Amino acid sequence: MTRDSKVTAAEVSSGDVDTDDGFDLVNDAPPPPTASTQVAPPAAPPAEASTSVSRTSHPSPSPKKIKKSKRNTTVLEYESGSGSGPPIPPKPASYASQIEAIASKMDATSLDRSIGDLSETTDDGYTKRLYNSLKGHLDWGREKEVLIAVMGMTGAGKTTFISKATGKKNLKIGHSLESCTRDISVHSTKIDGTIVHFVDTPGFSDTYLSDTDVLHLIADYLASAYKQDVKLHGIIYLHPISEIRMTNPATKNLEMFRKLTGEKNLKNVILATSMWDRVTIEEGESREQELCNKFWSILLTFGARTARYGGTPESAHEIAGMLMDNKPFYVQLQEEMKDNKALADTSAGREVMQEIDRMKQQHERELSEMKEMMQRTQEENNQAAMKALEEHYKKMLENMERTLKDERRMNEDKVRGLEDRIAALESRPPPCNIM
Q: Boundaries of each G domain copy (predicted)?
């Protein structure tokens, strides 16, 4: 039935009002307030009449008496002339049971279909307010989940951080120069009632993976996340404070990170220094100041924040908590792939291509020098030295071939755009683990 904008206490008491549970979200929803439905209270209402309950908000009067109707419905009678009755509560009690029953059988998608296109409403946003209110009911009781990526150069302590944050001690943690995070993995825990998923990523300048391999791994993960409409809430970028100076791999990692994330998303980034137990407080503070003033200055200008990771679960949770209330977002690499760009044409891809060109020039220079050295050694008839040089020259050729292979892979990558990359991922099992 269609509910009138005013329901009297007498009607409730007499049982004339239909209170069955067959409530339709759209057709039976209260109509938007209009001039015709907003009836002003009478100037002098009869003393014996119960005042009608208006849907507009008024100061709450004191009830005159409480009585039970034949249908066991509590009826409040108010003093005459005290206004139009108590204000409607934020979540109407009369509709709560119906909404909860329907919400258990619905999701946000079905609600979207039932409400229709909100841009076509002409009732001053009333339908949109109803939509948002009902959608809020659908989220009652659902646990909040957030996704946080942990990034940084090899050896920065990414996996150790996640192990402390999640309490999982079976994660493979590297204590040598060889990188353990060969693939992207996701580990979950609960922090302050919120489910937090940490994404463990390989760093650029990896021991076994080339920068091209790492970029493709990250691009594939981000494409899968986009397909499932999963967004990041933040990124923790780890840097070991124990590093005496900013090495070339560290500088390259930082630049790749900035190009992959995008300046507009840097406000969702925490630049966390790790391994404070390996330095004195004076050494650590001096290096931290240098990082902030020189290497991190651009990132901090765009809103990135700093933190010190103390190596404890509490410290890891505190850093994660700095990101948990962020608005979810897509990183720049996802946005660029969505715009139908090939990976080599993205900001991060162009950075990798520049590094490939630099490595090619370095290999060519080193090979040329090695040839000259081998020629001089051959003239001196030093067989032992000649054999060692030949072995070294062979390894240099292998490095050159890997660089050329990466270049071909970037140039010949015909997966253009996000949708094509997603289709390619779906054609090869197993599916990527997002959360």
A: 148-236
Residue 363 corresponds to which tokens in the numbers above? 């290999």
Euclidean distance between CA atoms 215 and 153, whole angstroms: 13
d(CA 403, CA 359): 7
Spatial distance between the Cα atoms of 205 and 207, rounded to a whole number of angstroms:
7
Residue type, 166: T
The angle formed by the CA atoms of residues 170, 171 and 176, to the nearest 5 degrees, is 120
Bond from prior residue into 430 cis (ω within 30 degrees of 0) = yes
Nearest by Cα to 319 from 168, 149, 188, 181: 149
Distance, in Å, from the CA atom of 216 to the CA atom of 415, rounded to the nearest integer, reads 11
- Which residue's structure tokens are 């990041």? 232
Taking a C-beta distance cutoff of 8 angstroms, is the pair 270, 234 a contact?
Answer: yes
Look at residues 414, 397, 280, 293 and name the one whose alpha carbon lies nearest to residue 345.
Answer: 414
| Token pair in block for residue 198 | 């940490």
CB 306 within 8 A of CB 241: no
Q: Which of 277, 271, 269, 270 is nearest to 311 (CA)?
A: 277
Residue 165 corresponds to which tokens in the numbers above?
């944050």
Taking only the tens of pLDDT, the chain with its 435 residues reads 444 444 444 444 444 544 444 444 445 555 555 544 444 555 554 444 444 434 444 444 444 444 444 444 444 444 444 444 445 445 444 555 555 555 555 544 444 444 444 444 445 555 555 555 555 555 555 678 999 999 998 889 999 999 999 998 876 554 333 433 457 889 999 999 999 999 999 888 877 888 999 998 899 899 888 888 899 999 999 999 999 889 888 998 999 999 999 999 999 999 999 999 999 999 999 999 999 999 999 999 999 999 999 999 999 999 999 999 999 999 999 999 888 888 899 999 999 999 999 999 999 999 999 988 988 888 888 888 888 998 999 999 999 999 999 998 888 775 555 666 666 666 655 555 665
**This prediction's pTM:** 0.63
The Cα 287–Cα 278 span in angstroms is 13
